[in-house]
C-alpha cells in the first residue's frame, strides 16, 4: 500500500490494520494525523475528556499512547476533536472544550516535554461549536482557525498565529465573515500549508446555499485574500450537513479539494468545475506527484 494512502487510513479510526500486520494504537475517537518534515508520524485522538498522543518513525509501528491532558468538556463527535501539526522543532495540539475555549499544547522536541495547556482564544466562550483546524509552516510557525461567535453571536472564522512553535499565540482576528450573517455552523474547517502558502477550506452559508469556499494566504497566514467558491453547482439546504471535506496542496503547489454536495462527492481545483467521483460523505484527500487519492 502506498505510504500516503496508508496514512489516510488512520485518519478515521484509531484501530487500524496494515497490509501485513495489525496494531491497536488505542481506544478512542476522532484521530487526527500529522507528518513532520522528517517523515515521522504523529497521531492525536480523544477518549472521554482525555487527549492521547502516539507517534511512529515509519507509520508501521506506533508508540504506546501518552496522556497529554484531561480537558474537562473536551469536544468530541461529528468531526469535533483534537487537531495536530508538527515541525522539526515542535508538535502542537489544539482542542476545544464545551465552554467554548480553544486550548493549545506544545511538545518541545529538544527536551521531549509537553507544555501545559494555554488558551488560544482571547475572548472566552466564543468557540462553542467546537470546530478547530491547525496547520504548521516553516520556521516553527503554526496557524489555528475555528468557528467563532464573538461580537454578534453568529459564526465566523477566526484565527491565531504562533511564530515560536506554539509557546504563545497572536491576538485573534476575524479571517472571514459571511455577508449573510453566518458561515455553516457545524461543518469542520480544513487548513493546509506548504511553505508560506496557507489555504483554508470551509462551508459557507450564502443565499440559502451550503457551498464550499477557499481563502488563501501567501505570507504564512498573516493576510488572506477573498473567499472563492469551489465548483459551479450549488446546494440549497436549510440545515447543516455536518461535513467539511478534504484539502491538500501537492508538491508542485497545486490545490486539490474533495467535498460533498447532497449524497455525492466531488473533487475540484480552484477556478475549475467540479468532478463527480462517488456517492459518500466525510472524504479526505492526498495529492502527490504520482496522483491524487481520496478516502
Layout of secondary structure:
Elements: H1 3-8, E1 15-17, E2 22-24, E3 29-35, E4 41-47, E5 50-56, E6 66-70, E7 83-86, E8 90-96, E9 102-108, E10 113-119, E11 132-136, E12 142-148, E13 156-162, E14 173-176, E15 190-194, E16 197-203, E17 212-217, E18 228-229, E19 246-249, E20 255-261, E21 264-268, E22 275-279, E23 285-288, E24 291-294
Antiparallel strand pairs: 1-2, 3-4, 4-5, 5-6, 7-8, 8-9, 9-10, 11-12, 12-13, 13-14, 15-16, 16-17, 17-18, 19-20, 20-21, 21-22, 23-24
A few lines on this structure:
This protein has 295 residues and is mostly beta strands.
Helix-and-strand structural type: mainly beta
Strand arrangement across the biggest beta sheet? 3-4-5-6
Q: Which range does the strand content fall in?
A: 35-45%
Give the SSE order as H and E letters: HEEEEEEEEEEEEEEEEEEEEEEEE
Shape: globular
Q: How large, in whole angstroms, is the Cα Rg? A: 18 Å
Largest sheet: 4 strands, antiparallel
The low-confidence runs, each spanning 5 or more residues with pLDDT under 50, are 1-19
Number of strands: 24
What is the mean pLDDT?
91
How many helical stretches? 1
Measure the end-to-end span: 14 Å
Q: Fraction of residues in helices? A: under 10%
